[in-house]
Design brief:
The complex is a heterodimer of chains A (284) and B (247). Chain A is α/β, with parallel strands linked by helices. Chain A has helices spanning 54-62, 102-113, 117-130, 146-158, 176-193, 204-210, 244-264, 278-283, and strands at residues 8-19, 28-39, 43-47, 69-74, 77-78, 87-90, 164-168, 196-200, 213-217, 224-229. The radius of gyration of chain A is 19 Å and the shape is globular. Chain B has one domain: MetI-like fold (Orthogonal Bundle). The chains are: A alpha/beta (284), B mainly alpha (247).
Amino acid sequence: MTIDRTSVHAALAGVTRVYPARAGQQPVHALGPLDLELRHGEFFSVVGPSGCGKSTLLDVLSGLAPPSDGQASFEGKALGDNVPDGIGVVFQEDASFPWLTVGDNVAFGLRRRGTDPAEIRRRVDYALGFMGLLAFAQAYPAQLSGGMRQRVCIARTLVMQPRLILLDEPFGALDQQTRLLMGDELLRLWRETGATVMLITHALDEANLLSDRIGVMSARPGRFIAIVETGWSRDRDSTLAEDPRFGAVSSRLWSYLRPESLRALGQQVPAAAQSADPLMSAAQ
Amino acid sequence: MTIAARGRDSILVLIAILAVWQAINLVGGDNLMTSPLATVQHAIDMMGQARFWPHLRETITAYLAALAIAVLGGVGFGVLLGAHRLTGDVAEPIFVALYSIPKVTLYPVILLAFGLGIQAKIAFGALHGIIPIVIFSLNAVRQINRTWLRTARTMSLTPLQTVRHVIIPATVPEIFSGLRVGAALTLLGTMLGELFASQRGLGFLLMTAIDLHDVKTIMAIALLITLFSVAMNTVMLTLDRRLHARF
């Protein structure tokens, strides 16, 4: 099957998310209104200042939380308060189940779904092999490092054969070297599965390295202030950081993001950062 | 610590206890404390007498009934309170306060309510055991990792599957810790209940022996209760460690 890489796979239209007021507090307007169209098979990253609603965006796009207003859709069908078949989510926190072995963790979703045992074994072996976990199938998560446990979570999502993979700062708790290597593995997984990927990250270099397009969000309530196309080839990896164009993209991202980050910290935005052309201000 | 080292330490502690016990007997004589050997001998003699067994049966029946109430009530209440945030927030300090009152002061009330029979002992035992089980169960449910629940949702688990495959395995180790503490306190409560205004049970035998200044019987009963309690706690502690090993 050939995929039309320009067609829309998942979309948000005029989406807002407002958390209702708790006792004695104001309601929190966390997100939007914003629009987003994820194209079939693209690698899309979202960067933004902390607290801008990145995770809320993921909740809405996965069906974990319904939008307060506007429309979220996946493969043409509206998303509500359920995660549909075909969407896989990897969280920032370690979500592996400590009471199950690595193998049982990876097989977990398929078993609940009632997949044929032979098929489960085949898919689990493949996912374990792909993530370099075959030797640890009988180990428990407590015996593994943080990076290995995050691989277990990715493998657990991978066996479900998702067509849209959403990752919420999955490498946030890992050291820099592990992050770079995990990024390479994520690219390999993306190429192999042909899935559409949306990655939420606070690391600009990571977003730059991995993505076809990067959405830059404003301070809360988060909206997209820019969508940056990187133009990297599909078979890229972490050696891309040596490319001189790489630095230019990172600077461009930062020039968009800097005023928003300052705003998120509650500081005055300097006049230079408000210049009409972010590239110009980055060069100053 | 390895199992061998732990076993060696236990044996050393046991030898030390026996040595101190023997020394007290040598210094103070049989009127203060009978020797370990004489105590074991008397305990065996007691178990050979037919009139001993109804007392033991009474204590065991009361303990098991109290334990059943404490476990079922404690886990049930605890899980419900843990699942509902506001109710749990209100109930927890109340239970902690109840936990800290010396419950023996309530025993006259229990006697008035339940009479002088086995019911009062059961109620008093259950009262001691239920509170730690409620507190542990409440916290086990309340502190469940939210990411595990979100993961269950991303895999489209039904509510029943979520309970069976995520919530139960996630909370069982902590609830079991509550059961361990609860089982020990239930035994304490049941025995306390037998010491006052009771006509049967090991506690009753103990009080009668105290009245008669029958040191040998006092020591033998204390030994039996201690052995039972240590054995139970050792088994439960081993299970508890095993359940927590992977968390």
